Amino acid sequence: MKNNRFYLLLFLAFCLISSLSAQEEIVEISSISEFRHFAPQALILEDPEHQYQVEEVLNDPKLDSLFFTSKAEIPYMDFTRSTYWMKLEVENSSIEELHYYIELVRPLTNLVKLYVFDENDLLIKEHIAGDDFTFCTREYEHRKFIFSQEFPPASKRTLIVQATSDGEILKLPIKFWDVNAFTQFASQENFFVGLYYGLFILVIILFSLFGFALRENLYVYFVAYVFSLAIFQFSLDGLAFQYFWRGLPWLGNHAILIFAATSMLGMYLYVRQFLGFKDDFPRYNKGYNVFIILLVISLIVSFTEGILYAYTFPFLNGLSFLAVLYILLGIRLKAKKEKKVEVPILLAFVALTLSSILFILCNVDIIHSEFLASNALKFGSGTEVIFLSIAMAGRYRQTQIDKISAQKEAVKRLEEINELKNQQTEKLEKEVEERTREIKLKNVQLSTQNKEIINSINYAQRLQDAILPTDADLDAALPDASILFKPKDIVSGDFYWMVETAEKVYFAVADCTGHGVPGAMVSVLGYNSLNRCIQEFKLNTAGEILDKLRSLVIETFTSEKIKVSDGMDIALCIWDKKSELQFAGAFNPIYLIKNGELEEIKGDKQPIGYFEKTSPFNTNTLKVEKEDSIVIFSDGFADQFGGPNGKKYKYSNFKKLLVKLTNEPPASWREKMDKELTEWKGDEEQIDDICVLRVKF
Predict the structure, then answer these.
(1) Which pLDDT band, with edges at 50, 70 and 90, does 319 fall under?
(2) To which H or E segment does residue 593 belong?
(3) How much is the pLDDT for 45?
(4) Following CA atoms 46, 49, 53, 56 in sequence, which dihedral angle do they give, to the nearest 10 degrees?
């Protein structure tokens, strides 16, 4: 029996505690003159699984034991993804209808709902807002969540607040504003907020101009940091969602993380460049690299959703505090090494550190100050930007001083150089006069010598022309013979040769080593040696003629003092004046054009001249019929540069041209070949001697 009494008393005590924990306080609202916080009078319920409905929160006894209260005017729920409910009983005991603005949660909250129930627990109004909706859906267009609500005279209302965050800090104020007081406060607040962001705009514009003028990365990093910091603060205040991306809820939710990471990256790059940590403190700079890698990872995660995204909020807050402390350590190392402190930089980050500490202490409810919670970071970042601007202005001033000093030094050096130059000029003028007289004398001598040389070469041309077969000789000995002969210089290293006997016609096109005078000398040797092969040695086989020609050239160019490797490439033909044609070639081929088709008969791969591995030249026998054509040539035409891209003409195009012109009479054939070469060459220089001989049977 005693045990039963004990358990009964224990049960009654539990019920009493439960009823006390869920006991609601009815708040009188008729005496508000400006504003008043009612969060300390509200019951708060955490809903981590997002499972409760508003009706359950309103009057389900099972939840009474789960409610708790907070003494803070703005309850702080830390970084969370839970839904939080708040329940508040209010009463208007006056005889007038009251109209208030109700301020709930903080900007950047994903979802906030305000349910208003009457005395009979009937829902009479539902307000919905949050960053998950476009900004234009808010019933009062303000950066904060403001709801307009009327309270009839002598009435009671139950207010249920539902708030959900995606991992950011969740604060739960319930602040009643007198309409006129709120309007006046908003006007004053906008003025000071405008001054704050005006400072950022001024700094961005001013140092953008400096950076454009000096073209230094330091100014780019600084402007990028200040710009990102401004957008971060603008997002933190809810202004970015109000003015920049009203219709983009996703960006409204993610902007604070994106620009927090971006601004910290800009800060690190700027400070490292300004204080020269990369060059002066390589080991310390490695820590910078670690922070930068972590910030880049955070920036990437800030574009995602889910648990990892939620954890990025506390991670980035802690990382930013450590980053500022690390920068202060770097400033100390710099001051210790250079025996000098960068005072503006130091004050900037001390201010940022102190403001961050105040902001964190306010957020965790150690310091109870709504003003500091809302404005600590503004004071710190504004002070930081001011001192950093002073530091940058000092750097700019020092740059200008250095530039002026460098200009003065340059002017001094220029004056010294000019003086030295004047002295040298006087000396040089005398030397120039003397040299000019010598040059004029040399020019006269060179002009005379050059004229004599040109006259000698022109005479050599007449001699070379004299030994070459004439057009009349070719026409008399060969049917429809056409020759295109264009020396690169006055005299040519290419030559064509012909000898006619009673039964046969011997003819060839040769390309001697080099061009100009050296090539012409070799061509004379080759021409005379070919004549000897026919007239002196009585040779009548193409291969034997080339074998003998090679021995004569080698014999001529070989002596005890020197061995000359010059020689020639040649295509040699013997026509029996009927249908048989012999051909032998040293590197050079012969083209046979029959019925519009071109056949190439290649020569031996050895020159007329000294060669390591020599063998007897082969004799090829060709049957030629009426309307057949043969072409022998040097490589000058196919190797000529020109055309739209300055490339070689190439043998493929050369073959097509010969087939195309195969039925042209001699004069027309030579004219069209020359025209094609001229048009292809254009403004390019002729690179080699050119010789093409066609015979049409």
Answers:
(1) confident
(2) strand 590-594
(3) 94
(4) -60
